[in-house]
Specification:
AhpD-like, mainly alpha, 127 residues, 2 domains
Length: 127
């Protein structure tokens, strides 16, 4: 493991997903899954998100559409929350969900809106 890359990834992962979520994920890792948690922290968040060529907001926007296209809605919700933390506006979110609906299908667009509405209501945002 590259400690510097891991540390950079851990900081970015917490900044995007929230420290509480990340600490819970790491704390709940079993003997079987702890190496995987280290791997995604170092590789995905350190090497990928840690590359400063694209800002976190842009990476969040890319993730929102890619994860929707894969229909991984549990991850979509997590990254929706992260995108808000990374400065993606609600107008940008609406436009992305429209793109998702056009290119991935109405059912996925409907599910994105369901999740977004629930998250925004939980956060006390006006929807």
């Amino acid at each position: 493991m590259d400690k510097a890359l891991y540390d950079k990834g851990l900081a970015q992962r917490k900044a995007t997903l929230g420290a509480e979520y990340v600490e819970k994920s790491l704390g709940n890792a079993t003997e079987f899954s702890k190496d995987f948690q280290s791997f995604i922290t170092e590789y995905c968040w350190g090497a990928g998100w840690g590359d400063e060529t694209l800002p976190p907001k842009t990476r969040s926007m890319l993730n929102i559409v890619m994860i929707a296209a894969l229909n991984r809605m549990h991850e979509w919700e997590l990254h929706f929350r992260g995108a808000l933390r990374n400065g993606v506006t609600l107008d940008e979110m609406k436009a992305m969900i429209t793109q998702i609906t056009i290119y991935c299908g109405v059912p996925v667009g409907v599910e994105c809106h369901r999740i977004a509405n629930r998250v925004l209501t939980e956060q006390g945002d006006e929807i």
